[in-house]
Predict the 3D structure of the following.
Amino acid sequence: MEISKPQIGVLAVQGAFIEHERILKSLGAEVFEIRQLRDLDRHLDGLVLPGGESTVQGKLLHDLGLFEPLKNLIEKGLPTFGTCAGLILLANKLSNDSHTYFGALPATVERNAYGRQLGSFYAEENFEGIGKVPMTFIRAPLIQSASEGVQVLATVNDQIVAIRYKNQLAISFHPELNEDLRVHRYFLEMISHFY
Ligand code: GLN
């Protein structure tokens, strides 16, 4: 079933959430911010976990009582799109951090993998099913390995930067920072196939 106007909740406790909202709205989605528990009373067709600082986001999620409800929704199959820190929140193993957060994505992720000097960079590489897309990396995590059943959607210099697993789309770069709507459109199409 096609949803004519998908309702997307964007986690808005910290980080680059406004940019996601702007793009999703321009693609015709109804977008609302998730800042506190009662924001989850609304119907959700999809969830966006933005970039930012995963440690801060993780702490706020617990403090605000959002962690368990969101974890349940993701585990139950809510289409979820994590970028950068959002990818870190989804991964079930962090190679250089003792924490894990939602742990729903069977992949090993290294935080701040590109070091301080190379913290930010830009690339244009192929994204499965889309073509070449702009990729802005900011103190980005690296997807070191992904389990069987995880589809690799993009690589840069042979390193994995975008994956999909069941209801989850996870990307180490920031598609919301370039004027290119195709990765978000990919997520909306993914949602429409879920219902
Ligand atoms: N370095 C951040 C972290 O570890 C992620 C960076 C980002 O989201 N741009 O959470």
In short: The first strand starts at residue 7 and ends at 11.
